[in-house]
What we know:
Blueprint: E1 4-5, E2 21-26, E3 31-33, H1 39-44, E4 48-55, E5 60-64, H2 68-74, H3 81-84, E6 93-97, E7 108-115, H4 124-135, E8 146-150, E9 153-161
Parallel strand pairs: 1-5
Antiparallel strand pairs: 2-3, 2-4, 4-5, 6-7, 7-9, 8-9
Amino acid sequence: MEPRSAGALGKEFPYTRKTLCYIEIAEDGTVSQGTDAGTYDRARTGKSRLFAVWPGEWSSHLFVIDDLDEYARAHGLIHDQDRTGLADHEHVVRWEVDPYEAKPMASYISIQLELDCGCTIEDRRTFASQMRAQRGWDIATSGGWGKRTGQGRTTYSLRARRKSLTQ
């Protein structure tokens, strides 16, 4: 039985789900689990094939990762504005410490943030990476975050390392 095609599912395939197990088979037959920085490059150049096991409630399904560009977009290796909501540009950001922050001198604090450049945050990891590169900010990528839309604007609630925040 042949593995199913992840590419046939397009953006519906859960490339970044934590329960997904990646299996890489190198051209010499070596099998490894997981992904690393070179997985995409090896698969793209034909030095390996990439598969994923998607566990279900009663059984698991094996998929061949046959749309490597979609895999790369999902993992942030190729920028995808549709998936992230974020253009690949310098963001225009307004922020303030959350007025309900109980410990404003803690290492990580809650902030309220608005993007005046027309972008939306659909992928917090991509936004954190862009803000680290653009402003040196350390945005937390674990834990909760929020989004509130009203009166023609969207405000995001995020956690950030206090000392990294600059205007």
